[in-house]
Design goal:
The complex is a heterodimer of chains A (about 550) and B (about 160). Chain A is an all-alpha fold and about 550 residues long. Chain A has a domain of about 60 residues: Helix-loop-helix DNA-binding domain (MYOD Basic-Helix-Loop-Helix Domain, subunit B, Irregular). Chain A is about 75% helix and about 0% strand. The N terminus and C terminus of chain A are likely disordered. In chain B, α1 packs across α6 and α2 crosses α3. Chain B starts with 10 loop residues before the first helix and ends with a helix. Classes of the chains: A mainly alpha (about 550), B mainly alpha (about 160). Chain A: It holds the Pfam family HLH.
Chain lengths: ~550, ~160
């Protein structure tokens, strides 16, 4: 359905904004992943996306390219799946199942297994949430096999994911769209988190590649601050210093380079692993275990977020303006993401207002859209409005001639008019039936078959008229003319009916100037289909049509 | 004309079957064409009821509007037969309407006027929030088009008969 796609594309845009300043290979890969994620089937996506999440930074550009090509091979969309609610609910249930099943195939060391599984749960649930497809239960086991490609990187990723892992359980909720987007954000945060690990080690060495990464890092930190803040809560001071330096480093670079930075990153990761990167992750690990072990409640996270954000507020006010400019773009992307997160978390924790007030002032830590309230009531209201707009779009497709109409009020007016005219149409036709006294001594079953046959053939052979608004106006003036009995009157009405229905089921070539042809075309179909003595009826009908043509045309010009 | 395999359980086929049967019942007793307006009007009423009923029965109770239509038809027929119980039926309709109005106040949709109109149009729409109302409207539109098409075809067939 359109809405589902639209939501996906929104998600895609946000992701693009959020990762604008990342390394080229990563961003390109991620964007592909985001785009492919949303539009491709899960079967093909999942195996290629999961490694993309973690492996892209470690793998070479060729790997990324292969994944991207794989993604774009299956650009199927979920249009056939009706409303999104059902799909995402299924996706939620399937993602829940996925989380459980993913616990098995982890192939890491025992100490890291749990966090890693949670990371993978996050990634898989993110992907599944982003799928909007009910058959997302088929998360392929290929994904874990990609992990051992870079054990050290994976190790760090696992450690870092421990902080995010605890809060993933919250994201997987039965609430449709926000859940998927929130889960997606989780995945993005996970990726950013892993990159941050590299950043910590990467700062210690100075190189050209390093500058790329530090740029990545700076954006990562700002992005991380927006999305996931459990990490920050645990290691505020060391990160603050690093962030300042990172932002300074990042401010030196402006242009976003587009090459295989991912390969460099992997090298950097491995090199920095021994330098001192272990210190931070270990610290993170220890503190991160707690929330994940407890299954973080939203209250706790909110408090930690609040603390972190106030600290970050102090810390981030010093950065260079260049960092600000860069962050703002990301902020816009993050704002919406955090809005989604805000939505889900407040739905669970019912504590949105307090924690989100301070971040609103900060340009980095915006939690909700600017100028919008963040309490659960307004969020629920927003969700309800989105649902309604979904349905309005569906109705727009159903009611002919409403594609150009914008605005709910006008659309509703059109819908009301259409329903009224349809009801009147049925009344007309039943009146017409009443006047014609059918001698149904002929075979009713045969009639039934032929009617169904014609009804099948009619709409299939002929298209649907694009604009029926004129029909409604035609029907309206004919209302007072409806007098029971009197065949000429009925003939006139029949002509109207024929034209109306003809426009329903036939392509209107040249507007109403050729209703005769259309009705004759339809009559021809009836002739060929009905193998009865229909000839007696047809000429009379055509006579009526011819006879009432002038009047019909006159009313058409109304 | 290609003979495509028909979906025997489609809305169209279900409705057409029921409607044609109802038509035969309506037209069977009248052997001589009576052209008095009142009789024609009566027949029109019956045909219209038959159309609505067959449409509602084709949808069963899957939709709120179909249930409302069936309920309305049943209560109307009951109220006609049992005059003494007519008050009860009217009370029932009144309660549903008032309940619907309460709902309207609660939701306070921005498009209140049009939503009200839509609720009046769609049977059973009084007690629905805007979200479900739009759902019901979509399905109702689809069924109305099918109904109109089938009645029209039936009419053409009957014209051909006589």
């Amino acid at each position: 359905m359109d809405v589902g796609e639209k939501d996906k594309f929104e998600l895609e845009k946000r992701n693009e904004n959020g990762i604008n300043y990342q390394g080229s290979g990563m961003s390109a890969a991620w964007q592909f992943a985001g785009g492919g994620n949303l539009t491709s089937t899960p079967m093909s996506l999942v195996p290629s996306d999961n490694p993309l999440v973690i492996g892209s930074s470690s793998g070479s550009a060729s790997m990324v390219d292969s994944f991207c090509s794989n993604l774009w091979e299956h650009p199927s969309n979920s249009q056939s799946l009706g409303f999104c609610d059902i799909n995402v609910q299924n996706g939620a249930s399937s993602s829940n199942a996925m989380g459980i099943t993913k616990g098995g195939p982890a192939s890491m060391s025992s100490s890291i297994d749990r966090q890693f599984d949670m990371a993978w749960n996050a990634a898989s649930s993110m992907l599944k949430g982003g799928m909007f497809l009910p058959n997302a239960t088929g998360i392929l086991p290929q994904s874990p096999s990609q992990l051992p490609a870079d054990s050290a990187f994976i190790e760090r990723a696992a450690k870092f994911s421990s902080f995010n892992g605890g809060s993933f359980s919250e994201m997987v909720n039965p609430f449709g769209i926000p859940e998927s987007m929130a889960v997606y954000n989780r995945g993005v945060g996970l990726m950013q988190g892993t990159q941050n690990v590299f950043a910590i080690g990467g700062l210690k060495s100075v190189s050209g590649v390093e500058s790329q990464k530090s740029k990545l890092i700076a954006t990562e930190t700002s992005g991380d601050a927006c999305l996931k803040t459990e990490n920050r809560a645990t290691q505020e001071s060391p990160h603050k210093n690093e962030r300042r330096s990172e932002s300074l480093v990042w401010s030196n670079e402006e242009a976003r380079q587009e090459n295989g930075g991912s390969g460099n990153e992997s090298n950097e990761a491995e090199s920095s692993d021994g330098v001192g990167g272990q210190d931070e992750p270990s610290a993170l690990h220890s503190t991160g275990c707690e929330p994940s072990a407890k299954g973080v409640s939203s209250k706790k996270r909110r408090r930690s977020i609040q603390d972190v954000e106030t600290d970050q507020a102090k810390g981030s006010q010093s950065p260079v303006d260049a960092a600000k400019d860069g962050a703002e773009n990301q902020q816009k992307g993050d704002r919406d993401q955090s809005t989604v997160m805000n939505k889900t978390t407040t739905k669970h924790g019912k504590q949105g207002s307090q924690a989100s007030d301070p971040p609103k002032e900060e340009y980095i830590h915006v939690r909700a859209r600017r100028g919008q309230a963040t309490n659960s009531h307004s969020l629920a209201e927003r969700v309800r409005r989105e649902k309604i707009s979904e349905r309005m779009k569906f109705l727009q497709d159903l009611v002919p001639g409403c594609s150009k109409v914008t605005g709910k009020a006008v659309m509703l007016d059109e819908i009301i008019n259409y329903v009224q005219s349809l009801q009147r149409q049925v009344e007309f036709l039943s009146m017409k039936l009443a006047t014609v006294n059918p001698r149904l001594d002929c075979n009713i079953e045969g009639l039934l078959e032929k009617d169904i046959f014609k009804s099948r053939a009619g709409p299939s052979a002929l298209g649907f008229s694009p604009d029926l608004s004129v029909c409604y106006t035609l029907l309206h003036p004919s209302q007072p003319g409806l007098v029971p009995g009197g065949l000429p009157v009925m003939g006139n009405n029949a002509d109207f009916m024929r034209r109306t229905l003809g426009s329903h089921f036939t392509p209107m070539a040249g507007g109403f100037k050729e209703p005769n042809q259309l009705s004759n075309a339809w009559e021809d179909e009836l002739h060929s289909a009905v193998q009865m003595n229909y000839g007696a009826g047809a000429p009379s009908n055509s006579q009526e049509v011819n006879g009432s043509q002038p009047s019909g045309h006159a009313e058409v010009e109304l | 004309m290609d003979l495509q395999n028909l979906n025997p359980s489609s809305l169209k086929s279900r409705f057409t079957a029921r409607f044609l049967r109802a038509l035969t019942e309506i037209n069977a007793p009248k052997t001589i064409s009576s052209s008095s307006p009142r009789e024609i009007f009566q027949r029109y009423r019956r045909i219209k009821v038959a159309a609505d009923k067959s449409m509602a029965y084709s949808v069963r109770s899957r939709r709120i509007w179909s249930r409302a239509t069936l309920w309305r038809l049943r209560t109307r027929s009951r109220s006609r037969r049992l005059v003494s119980f007519g008050r009860r039926a009217s009370v029932k309709t009144r309660t549903t309407a008032s309940h619907g109005k309460e709902n309207k106040e609660h939701h306070g949709a921005v498009l209140g006027v049009q939503a009200e109109e839509l609720r009046e149009l769609v049977p059973g729409g009084e007690a629905m929030d805007l979200c479900n109302l739009l759902d019901e409207t979509a399905h109702y539109i689809k069924c109305l088009t099918t109904q109109g098409f089938c009645v029209y075809m039936g009419g053409l067939l009957c014209e051909g008969c006589c």
